UniProtKB/TrEMBL annotation:
Protein purpose: Catalyzes the attachment of proline to tRNA(Pro) in a two-step reaction: proline is first activated by ATP to form Pro-AMP and then transferred to the acceptor end of tRNA(Pro).
Quaternary assembly: Homodimer.
GO cellular component: aminoacyl-tRNA synthetase multienzyme complex; cytoplasm
Keywords: Aminoacyl-tRNA synthetase, ATP-binding, Cytoplasm, Ligase, Nucleotide-binding, Protein biosynthesis
SUPFAM superfamilies named in the record: C-terminal domain of ProRS, Class II aaRS ABD-related, Class II aaRS and biotin synthetases
Catalyzed reaction equations: tRNA(Pro) + L-proline + ATP = L-prolyl-tRNA(Pro) + AMP + diphosphate
Keyword Nuclease in record: no
CDD domains: ProRS_anticodon_zinc, ProRS_core_arch_euk
UniProt-listed PROSITE patterns: AA_TRNA_LIGASE_II
Protein name per Swiss-Prot or TrEMBL: Proline--tRNA ligase
Residues passing through the membrane, by range: none
Protein source organism: Filimonas zeae
Amino acid sequence: MSKEITSRADNYSEWYNDIVVKADLADHSAVRGCMVIKPYGYALWENMRDVLDKMFKDTGHVNAYFPLFVPKSLFEAEEKNAEGFAKECAVVTHYRLKTDPDNKGKLIVDPAARLEEELVVRPTSEAIIWNTYKGWIQSYRDLPLLINQWANVVRWEMRTRLFLRTAEFLWQEGHTAHATKQEAIEETTRMLDVYADFVENWMAVPVVKGVKTPNERFAGAEDTYCIEALMQDGKALQAGTSHFLGQNFAKAFEVKFSDKENKLDYVWATSWGVSTRLIGALIMAHSDDEGLVLPPRIAPIQVVIVPIYKGDEQKAAIDAKVKGEIIPALKAAGVTVKYDDNDNARPGWKFAEYEKKGVPVRIALGARDLDNNVAEVARRDTKEKNSYSLDGLPARIVALLDEIQQNIYKKARTFRDTHITRVDTWDEFVKTLDGKTGFVAAHWDGTGETEEKIKELTKATIRCIPLNNEQEAGKCVLTGNPSTQRVLFARAY
RNA sequence: CGGGAGGUAGUUCAGCCCGGUAGAAUACCUGGUUUGGGACCAGGGGGUCGCAGGUUCGAAUCCUGUCCUCCCGACCA
């Protein structure tokens, strides 16, 4: 039945690709490393975006839009940031094409149209934004400046995977300026909390909040906070980051403000972002060998209704019930519903199709059901089917959607919790990574050298130092040097 | 960027070694019968064989280049 989708056991990578393509989320494009997000996938992104956008606005942020291009001189102003991204920047060098004199009908880059200064296609927007903020901020009265933008960015990746790592992707980036260090740090953690709230309560993906080690930190940041999620194959995925940028960008772009005492000081900055990568996380956290499994709260279609009938008479009776009563009631209850009465496809085909696409609830309604005043309700997460009375059906569906949301979160949560393994020896460390997989909580001596060595030996990186981490004396799992706390290691996407 | 595999109908693939009028299944269209887990019968339409060169009387097939995809590495603040 599900022969179209490679099973996870057979080939996890292919399974992932199959889900993306066959659930109609996205396609490869003619451009290397770039994807086409299809309407169903984009609808999912729009739902995610709308929820996040509201959360940002509820925490005082406003949206704006900054240019795609960053002059190279601006880009290089904050040295560490520029260095960090240098290897993966697309660069615009010319502004004109012309007809190839040697090859009619073909175009070549016009060598006479070279730009005096190259333009970097933004891999992130700190540079252009801080250059702009310089003109917007004079006094403490202009602060805090709380701006977000929804945009595309380009990072020239060697190896790409739909949603997880593409050369161009969609995201939001928040860029804020504050009068005090304390306030900027509070903003950083506030937005981390917003991300965790969204990913756990809307996407139903449990996350660990933590801080990155200096090695894994955003280039140009003082501290990088992150939320880390665990995928079904036991690999970790960074689902969002929030950076405390200190005064690095303020200094690089000369952004000063006068405080109440009329003293000049550099402002304090944060930036934070989540991207279409979240869709990759969503897929790998919940989906199964039959296809996508979507949490009801962000599913583009929450309920699909499939009529089962013989002849026009039965169809008319079902139509009347569905269009006249069920759909209006569901819509009134805030449920997104699709009635698929397309006569070209048989019910069985539709069942398989909507399972593949991860629609949380399916209602099948036939003539027999009408006689009994019931409907067959199937849930995507457990594949259970039950008949429910048509009286009170909308309320039952609303409750069921909520149950599904809770259930898939719990399932992912249990998987995550049982895949955090405390280990104290190198032997266990390696065995856990290779066998059980998941997060390994181990002592680390705090040095970048040890972190590098472990990465080299096992391909595992320190995903984060969890927030409010328990302090506990121990010995580094690799070097045996003293350590004060355990950190989370994992192989990661 | 290295190593391997691949690109032929909307899709999955055969044909290529050994050059000679482009194939199957499925999807699609028309008509009919159907409809409770991927329906059936009959008829029909659809492909510059990724793209560009070359060899040849003749290229999906041989040669060169190039683009794209997949797998494994390297890379990934």
